[in-house]
């Protein structure tokens, strides 16, 4: 990943761990979209632990930074982060226009179908016919059933219908695509809370998973969007799309460390298998391997 390549190269340019080193490290973290506050926090913590753990060279500092980042990311997972996978569940894809909600819904459908789950896609983006068609083509491509409403219809009633057939035909997982229209926050809140209410009253035993989909290439905006959605609804995870070709991988750390929301999946392309579970260990290996 671009972010780690840059970060890894950075360490080779120094022979000693002086103030310049820490200043430059903070800058490169900010450039990689770790965010100002997390960049400063990482840099300060590294400085402290370099002293305490008697590290003297940049290579040792790099390893220590990896440990610190991993600790921060691991601290975010609760142990119940993936409960929706093993229970009856409703997965809501939320996010602003064009971030990759529909594509990620399709990729998730393929993923869970191949894991043997009985999956249904739900076209609750009823704003335009094209959105329903787009999800229909993902349903065909992945061999997953779909429930759709009509254009201009009520998203809540599409979810209602989907839940009735999930119960009647024993589906494991509903993956609900929602509209990305950026209307105002109040409308958004109303719409999402209506859907939440329907799930709560019609399908109380289901685990509800709300995935905020954000586009990595938009940098700090991605974090802001996740934050805003978390203010209007209970976001349980983030899907970070378009990480392919982005040097902005540091946004993962910003989202987890500042918002305390786990990044659960990363999108690495447009294809059906280009959605990977975000794995802290592998992410960190990138830093150590690419030297
Ligand atoms: N390179 C790359 N492209 C992606 C990824 N995820 C989605 N896309 C592309 O981004 C574009 C928008 O994706 P959609 O899934 O339609 O986004 P959306 O959030 O549903 O958009 P709206 O419904 O219009 O709000 C499409 O061209 C996708 O193929 C990814 O991880 N990497
Ligand atoms: Mg869409």
User: How many distinct domains?
Assistant: 2
| SSE-based structural type | alpha/beta
Helicity, as a percent range: 40-55%
Alpha plus pi helix count = 12
What is the CATH homology-level superfamily of the largest domain? Answer: P-loop containing nucleotide triphosphate hydrolases
Average pLDDT? 92
- Strand order across the largest sheet: 3-2-4-1-5-6-7-8
CATH class categorisation of the largest domain: Alpha Beta
Shape: elongated
Return residue spans where pLDDT drops below 50 for at least 5 consecutive residues. none
Small molecules held by this entry = guanosine-5'-triphosphate, magnesium ion
CATH architecture of the largest domain: 3-Layer(aba) Sandwich
Indicate the radius of gyration in whole angstroms.
Answer: 21 Å
Oligomeric status of the shown chains?
single chain
Biggest sheet, in brief?
8 strands, mixed
- Total strands: the figure is 8
Instruction: Calculate the terminal CA-CA distance, rounded to whole Å.
Output: 12 Å
Helix-strand topology string: HHHHHEHEHEHEHEHEHEEH
Task: Name some characteristics of this structure.
elongated; Four Helix Bundle (Hemerythrin (Met), subunit A); alpha/beta; binds magnesium ion; 291 residues; Rossmann fold; 12 helices; eight-stranded mixed β-sheet; binds guanosine-5'-triphosphate
Q: What does this protein structure show overall?
A:
The chain is an alpha/beta fold. It folds into two domains: 2-77, Up-down Bundle (Four Helix Bundle (Hemerythrin (Met), subunit A)), CATH 1.20.120; 83-278, P-loop containing nucleotide triphosphate hydrolases (Rossmann fold), CATH 3.40.50. The chain has twelve helices and eight strands. It has helices at 2-12, 19-31, 36-52, 58-74, 83-86, 101-114, 129-142, 155-168, 185-202, 220-232, 251-259, 280-289; strands spanning 89-94, 119-123, 145-148, 173-177, 207-215, 237-241, 263-267, 275-277. Helix 10 links the parallel strand 5 and strand 6 (237-241). The longest helix is centred in the middle third of the chain and has 18 residues, at 185-202. The structure holds guanosine-5'-triphosphate and magnesium ion.
């Amino acid at each position: 990943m671009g972010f780690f390549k840059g970060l890894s190269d950075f360490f080779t340019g120094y022979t000693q761990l002086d103030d310049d080193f820490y200043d430059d490290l903070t800058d490169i973290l900010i450039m990689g979209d770790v965010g100002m506050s997390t960049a400063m926090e990482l840099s300060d913590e590294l400085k402290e632990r370099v002293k305490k753990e008697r590290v003297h060279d940049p290579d040792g500092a790099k390893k220590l930074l990896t440990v610190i980042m991993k600790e921060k990311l691991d601290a975010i997972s609760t142990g119940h982060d993936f409960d929706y996978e093993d229970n009856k569940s409703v997965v809501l894809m939320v996010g602003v226009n064009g971030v990759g909600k529909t594509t990620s819904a399709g990729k998730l459908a393929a993923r869970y179908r191949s894991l043997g789950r009985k999956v249904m896609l739900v076209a609750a983006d009823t704003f335009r016919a094209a959105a329903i068609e787009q999800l229909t083509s993902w349903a065909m491509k992945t061999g997953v059933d779909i429930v759709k409403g009509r254009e201009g219809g009520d998203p809540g009633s599409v979810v209602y219908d989907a839940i009735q057939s999930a119960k009647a035909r024993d589906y494991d997982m509903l993956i609900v695509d929602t509209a990305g229209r950026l209307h105002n926050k109040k409308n958004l809140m109303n719409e999402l809370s209506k859907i939440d209410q329907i799930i709560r009253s019609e399908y109380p035993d289901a685990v509800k998973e709300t995935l905020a989909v954000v586009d990595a290439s938009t940098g700090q905006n991605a974090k802001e969007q996740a934050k805003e959605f978390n203010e209007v609804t209970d976001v349980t995870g983030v899907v970070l799309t378009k990480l392919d070709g982005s040097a902005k991988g540091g946004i993962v750390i910003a989202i987890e460390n500042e918002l305390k929301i786990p990044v659960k999946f990363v999108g690495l392309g447009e294809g059906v298998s280009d959605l990977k579970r975000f794995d802290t260990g592998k992410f960190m290996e990138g830093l150590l391997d690419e030297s």
